[in-house]
Design goal:
The chain contains 6 helices and no strands. By secondary structure, it is mostly helical.
Length: 142
């Protein structure tokens, strides 16, 4: 009986130490010296806002990151995309049939709007720095 208690104490002790080490490492891994907006949780939150990720990566805060921080940011971005995608998948399967179709319609509308916004911003810029005339109301036939 004493022997069993000794093993149990050892196993519990090892698990406690391993849990503490894992907890400390997980606290430092995500942050890794990057601003909150570029942590996994910060990027997942930005994905819920229209244009949120674009704003983050065009910000002065991103420009000020070191090369090492940028590597961490890109790792975080990959994790954030996966987490965001999986949360949408989980929500889809948790919904009833009628809500599932509505969710798919909303997601498709979001993707279509994002694609149009990107296309419009790209179309508004030509290689010579001039606008395509849409903002002034001029058409190519004038």
């Amino acid at each position: 009986m004493k022997r069993r208690r000794g093993w149990t104490s050892t196993v519990v002790g090892v698990l406690l130490v391993a849990g503490a080490v894992w907890g400390l490492l997980s606290l430092t891994d995500e942050e890794d010296g990057v601003p909150e907006a570029f942590t996994v949780s910060g990027m997942v939150a930005a994905m819920d806002e229209p244009g949120g990720m674009d704003r983050q990566f065009k910000s002065d805060a991103y420009e000020r990151l070191t090369d090492e921080q940028r590597k961490q940011v890109w790792k975080n971005k990959e994790e954030a995309f996966y987490a965001h995608f999986m949360s949408r998948v989980d929500a889809y399967f948790a919904a009833d049939e009628a809500e599932r179709e509505a969710m798919l319609d909303r997601h498709l509308d979001e993707l279509e709007a994002a694609g149009k916004a990107k296309g419009e911003s790209a179309a508004g810029k030509s290689g010579d720095g001039k606008s395509d005339g849409k903002a002034t109301g001029k058409s190519s036939g004038e």
